[in-house]
């Protein structure tokens, strides 16, 4: 069973993906970490983010087991990830890795931007999780503050709007809602309510699949 979750930056899809995976005892992959891992490699090697060959090599060498979410979830790496994610060779290098993960038994939850549209077009259930840019910025600014880092709300909002524009307009696998995805707008939902709504959607699609 594959659950595909897509949505814009800071929509809550990562938290929902993790909690859904715990609920169904499935594996979970936050695919944003793959792109963040590639950007982190370039920065560590002193390579510029527009070095497409270095980005491709970093993507080919990436090992899921090495991805440290705490280290990778910085604003700088989010921006870098969004830049290298536009390179077709990087996306291609990461495709099979994601598809292999999706085949893990008894099931897998993958969240990202193109899971329902490109990585797992035949996923059993597709969710498109979103929230207003202002609400997403408020949540992300709170997370950064809790980590002791402190970009202002305005800086976080500008970053989110820039990434929305780049992720949504790139020619290769842009952020789109798959035609068979179910929209979940979490602007007015806390995480418990969002999780319950997501479980209802997944259970509903599993019932449909059975008969
Ligand atoms: O979800 P996130 O903020 O960690 O993702 C960081 C960047 O990676 C995002 O701005 C775009 C890119 N990304 C992507 O292009 N495709 C994915 N499946 C996941 C992330």
- State the share of residues found in helices, binned by percent: 55-70%
Number of strands: 5
Order of helices and strands: EHEHHHHHEHEHHEH
- Measured between the Cα atoms of the first and last residue, the distance is 16 Å
Rg over alpha carbons = 16 Å
Overall mean pLDDT score?
93
Spatial sequence of strands, sheet with the most strands:
2-3-1-4-5
Form type: globular
Counting DSSP H or I runs of 4 or more residues, the number of helices is 10
Beta fraction: 5-15%
Distinct ligands, ions and cofactors found in the model: 2'-deoxycytidine-5'-monophosphate
Low-confidence stretches: none
Q: What structural class do helix, strand and pairing data support?
A: alpha/beta
Largest sheet: 5 strands, parallel
Oligomeric grouping of the chains: single chain
Topology:
Elements: E1 2-6, H1 13-24, E2 27-30, H2 32-45, H3 52-61, H4 69-72, H5 75-84, H6 88-102, E3 108-112, H7 115-119, E4 125-130, H8 133-146, H9 153-169, E5 182-185, H10 191-210
Parallel strand pairs: 1-3, 1-4, 2-3, 4-5
Helix pairs in contact: 1-10, 2-3, 2-5, 3-6, 5-9, 8-9
The structure holds 2'-deoxycytidine-5'-monophosphate.
Q: Could you characterize the architecture of this molecule?
A:
The chain is α/β, with parallel strands linked by helices. The protein is 57% helix and 11% strand. It is built from 10 helices and 5 strands, in the order E-H-E-H-H-H-H-H-E-H-E-H-H-E-H. The chain has helices at 13-24, 32-45, 52-61, 69-72, 75-84, 88-102, 115-119, 133-146, 153-169, 191-210; strands at residues 2-6, 27-30, 108-112, 125-130, 182-185. Strands 2-3-1-4-5 form a 5-stranded parallel sheet, with helices on both faces. The protein is globular. The two termini are 16 Å apart. The mean pLDDT is 93. 2'-deoxycytidine-5'-monophosphate (DC) is lined by residues 9, 31-32, 35-36, 78, 81-82, 85, 112-114, 163, 167.
């Amino acid at each position: 069973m594959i659950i595909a979750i897509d949505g814009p930056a800071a929509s809550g899809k990562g938290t929902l993906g993790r909690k859904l995976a715990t609920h169904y005892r499935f594996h979970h992959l936050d695919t944003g970490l793959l792109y963040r891992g590639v950007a982190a490699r370039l920065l560590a090697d002193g390579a510029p983010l527009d070095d497409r060959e270095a980005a491709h090599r970093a993507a080919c060498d990436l090992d899921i087991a090495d991805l440290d979410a705490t280290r990778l979830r910085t604003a700088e790496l989010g921006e870098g990830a969004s830049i290298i994610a536009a390179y077709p060779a990087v996306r291609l290098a990461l495709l099979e890795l994601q598809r292999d993960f999706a085949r893990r038994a008894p099931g897998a939850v993958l969240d990202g931007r193109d899971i329902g549209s490109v990585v797992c077009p035949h996923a059993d259930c597709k969710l498109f999780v979103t929230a207003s840019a202002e609400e997403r910025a408020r949540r992300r600014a709170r997370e950064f503050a809790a980590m002791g880092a402190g970009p202002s709300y305005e800086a976080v909002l500008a970053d989110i709007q820039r990434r929305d524009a780049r992720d949504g307009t790139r020619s290769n696998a842009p952020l789109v809602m798959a035609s068979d995805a179910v929209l979940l707008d979490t602007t007015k939902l806390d995480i418990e309510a969002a999780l319950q709504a997501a479980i209802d959607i997944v259970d509903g699609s599993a019932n449909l699949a059975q008969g």
